């Protein structure tokens, strides 16, 4: 088996990154860094703030000071089960999956200063022992020196179906146009991710590309294990 310190797993929304990353982390008993959890957490903090998100987006100094102050009260715990974020001693988990966070996280994560701030934090976390990371710019920007880079992809229809299954398993929706809503959201996120100024979604140099459209998570895992071995 190839020795590794960092394995990055990137890809667009609902390509299977988080599921497979957790499977790999658990198999090798190494910590998992979920970048999405950090961006959702920042989005959550901005929503809770007394000032509007737009106010922070328009004032870089105000935004940076807000982030620095907020993260003084943050503890990030990486385990093979995932990334756990504590704020003022409280685990912030379910809050990160609320619809208001879902609706804003792509716009928040496209902000240059926020990406730079969180990239620095993630690189510090990556200085520890072996690590599995997943996101949209892990192999291209955050950890370009990673030992193994994986890029997962899947066609839009499959990704929409996966997101619908995920949502329907957690929330009862009465919206008759849910499919169209999810489809448009994925298209919107893809556009923001691929066109943002800092660290856009691209295939990292030297990455192994796996199309997960017709593969189960177990089959994707096996493909990655072949690469690692």
TrEMBL record:
HAMAP family linked to this entry: Cytidyl_kinase_type1
Superkingdom, taxonomy of origin: Bacteria
Organism per entry: Thermodesulfobacterium geofontis
Pfam families: Cytidylate_kin (PF02224)
Domain (Cytidylate kinase) ranges: 7-229
Protein name: Cytidylate kinase
CDD domains linked to this entry: CMPK
Keyword tags: ATP-binding, Cytoplasm, Kinase, Nucleotide-binding, Transferase
Example of a GO cellular component annotation carried by this entry: cytoplasm
Binding site for ATP: 11-19
């Amino acid at each position: 088996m190839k020795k590794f310190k960092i394995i990055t797993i990137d890809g667009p929304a609902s390509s299977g990154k988080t599921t497979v990353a957790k499977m790999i982390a658990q198999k090798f008993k190494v910590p998992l860094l979920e970048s999405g959890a950090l961006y959702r957490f920042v989005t959550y903090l901005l929503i809770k703030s007394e000032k509007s998100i737009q106010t922070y987006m328009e004032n870089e100094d105000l935004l940076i000071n807000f982030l620095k102050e907020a993260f003084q009260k943050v503890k990030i715990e990486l385990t093979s089960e995932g990334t756990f974020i504590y704020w003022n001693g409280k685990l912030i988990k379910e809050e990160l999956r609320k619809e208001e966070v879902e609706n804003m996280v792509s716009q928040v994560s496209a902000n240059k200063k926020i990406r730079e701030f969180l990239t620095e934090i993630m690189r510090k976390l990556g200085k520890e022992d072996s690590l599995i990371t997943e996101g949209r710019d892990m192999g291209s920007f955050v950890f370009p020196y990673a030992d193994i880079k994986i890029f997962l992809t899947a066609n839009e229809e499959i990704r929409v179906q996966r997101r619908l299954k995920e949502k329907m398993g957690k929330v009862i929706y009465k919206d008759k146009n849910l499919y169209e809503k999810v489809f448009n959201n994925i298209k919107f996120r893809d556009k923001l991710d691929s066109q943002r100024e800092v660290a856009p979604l691209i295939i990292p140099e030297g990455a192994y590309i796996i199309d997960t459209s017709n593969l189960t998570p177990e089959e994707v895992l096996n493909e990655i294990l072949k690469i690692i071995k």
